[in-house]
Amino acid sequence: MTKLFLPLLMAGVLLATPLAAQSREEVNERIEALQGDPQGFAEAFDLLTEAMRYGDPVTVSQLADYPLTVRANGEEYELLEAQDLVDNYDRLVMADTQQMVADQEFDELFVNAQGVMFADGALWMASICDDDACSGTHWGIIAINN
């Protein structure tokens, strides 16, 4: 019984222990390696979190890449242009999503090859190619998942 209890206890301790926090520098390194342009991301991050904090649909819509997939109210919407988001902002970006994105800490972001995840997946941003040759990029919101 003791032989079984000790491994279970250790597993419980390990699962309850939070993962080591990452630094802003480590997040920037992952962005550079997987998406590129960490400085551009930092600027977009600041604009987005501020816009969400103050409920600014125009700035949020300008940061989005279209067509934009938004999941809200149990539905999935494909927005074709910025004005679609501005006109329907309160129905498409829930208050709790706005708050979670506004409160997002930079060093708690998740970065992978698809983009940067905010607020446990409530919003994703990615580096978007400006042309077919990808000679330039910009950061854009690629999904909102309320």
Explain how this protein is built.
The protein has helices at 2-16, 24-34, 38-53, 57-63, 82-87, 89-92, 95-102; strands at residues 64-72, 75-79, 110-112, 115-118, 123-129, 137-145. Strand 5 (123-129) and strand 6 (137-145) form a beta hairpin. By secondary structure, it is α+β, with helices and mostly antiparallel strands. It is built from seven helices and six strands. The chain is globular. Mean pLDDT is 89; it is low at 1-19.
Count of individual helical segments: 7
The count of DSSP E runs of length 2 or more, i.e. the number of strands, is: 6
Report the C-alpha radius of gyration, rounded. 18 Å
Low-pLDDT residue spans: 1-19
Average pLDDT metric: 89
Detail the topology: elements first, then pairings.
Layout: H1 2-16, H2 24-34, H3 38-53, H4 57-63, E1 64-72, E2 75-79, H5 82-87, H6 89-92, H7 95-102, E3 110-112, E4 115-118, E5 123-129, E6 137-145
Parallel strand pairs: 1-6
Antiparallel strand pairs: 1-2, 3-4, 4-5, 5-6
Helix pairs in contact: 3-4, 3-7
